[in-house]
Amino acid sequence: MLPRIDEFAFQSGRVLANKYEVLERLGKGWEGEVYRIEEIATGIERAAKFFYPHRNLGDRTMKFHARKLSRLSSCPILIRYVTHDQIVFRGHKVKFLVSELFEGEQLVVFLRRQPKKRLTIFEAMHLLHALAGGLEQIHEFGEYHGDLHHGNIMVQRSGITFDVKLVDLYRWHGTANENIREDVFDMIRVFYDMIGGAKVYKSHPAEVKWICAGLKRSLIAKRFRTAGDLRFHLEHMEWDSM
Ligand SMILES: Nc1ncnc2c1ncn2[C@@H]1O[C@H](COP(=O)(O)OP(=O)(O)O)[C@@H](O)[C@H]1O
Ligand SMILES: [Mg+2]
Predict the structure, then answer these.
(1) Are 164 and 77 in contact (CB under 8 A)?
(2) Residue 242 pLDDT > 90, yes or no?
(3) Could you give the residue ranges of the DSSP H alpha helices within the chain?
């Protein structure tokens, strides 16, 4: 038995699979590590996710991500899947997925830079709208994201609104509808956190509270069955208190 790999820690400048040069590490998580890489033959920068072998038994994790990204390739909120490859690292075969690089930042990092570490209600509603419209297309396939939180949402300001990309997907048990409802709940929780969380919730206008529904799952599920319902609501809601 080879010792298990808990970290790759590739240095910048290292060449992998004779094709890619490592530029920097973008993230380290439960399944593996993500790097900004350059495809040497073309000079194109991409993102590559390297899976820890014990999190990718039978290549199941790699296949799950690649297939799901491919099936949902018409959804612009997901990053484009490009290809997969393999390296040998400390005797282990290590699979990695190469995808489009998104030049945004994690929502958690973006929020930290904001005054009082939060967004104004209108900014947050714009971001929520971009998120809901993007997820709506995934939900229309009967699919779901499964792991929506401020570390997996990448954002970049674009005029008055936001370009949003989702990274990482997760496969849960349960029906598609249950998981779609969970996506909607997670998205609303992200909105709730973006505007200051529990500390300031009381002071928000009624329109915001109607959307957040005090983060009560059953109430949210009744109001918005899918991301599309939420997107529609944001486009047609009436303002009484503001
Ligand atoms: N295509 C990409 N473009 C730019 N950054 C990315 C991309 N994919 C992942 N990242 C960055 O790497 C981090 C970790 O990637 P993620 O897929 O969430 O893996 P994990 O959470 O399992 O480590 C992300 O939070 C994001 O900051
Ligand atoms: Mg992640």
Answers:
(1) yes
(2) no
(3) 60-71, 107-112, 121-140, 176-194, 198-201, 206-212, 217-223, 227-236
Average pLDDT on 167-171 reads 93
Q: Report d(CA 176, CA 182) in Å as an integer.
A: 10
Residue 2 falls inside a structural domain: no
How confident is the model over 44-62, as pLDDT tens digits?
A: 999 999 999 999 999 999 9
Strand order in the sheet with 20-28: 15-16, 20-28, 32-39, 44-51, 92-100, 81-89
- Domain end, chosen from 79, 100, 121, is at 100
Is 61 close to ligand 1, i.e. is its CB under 6 Å away?
Answer: no
Q: Which domain holds residue 22?
A: 15-100
Radius of gyration of the CA atoms of the chain, in A: 19
CB distance 98 to ligand 1 below 6 Å? no
Average pLDDT over residues 11-34: 97
Return the pLDDT at 175.
Answer: 96
Enter the tokens of residue 118.
């939060």
Mean pLDDT of the region 181-207: 98
- Locate 130 and state its tokens: 């971009």
Does 241 have pLDDT greater than 90? Answer: no
148: CA distance to ligand 2 center in Å?
Answer: 9
The Cα-based distances of 229 to 12, 30, 58, 191, 235 in angstroms read: 44, 32, 38, 16, 10
CB proximity list for 16: less than 8 A, separation 6 or greater: 10, 22, 37, 48, 85, 87, 96
Q: Which atom of ligand 1 is nearest to the CA of 33?
A: 23
Would you say residue 5 lies in a domain?
Answer: no
Q: Which residue has the tokens 């009381």?
A: 202
Mean pLDDT of 32-39: 98
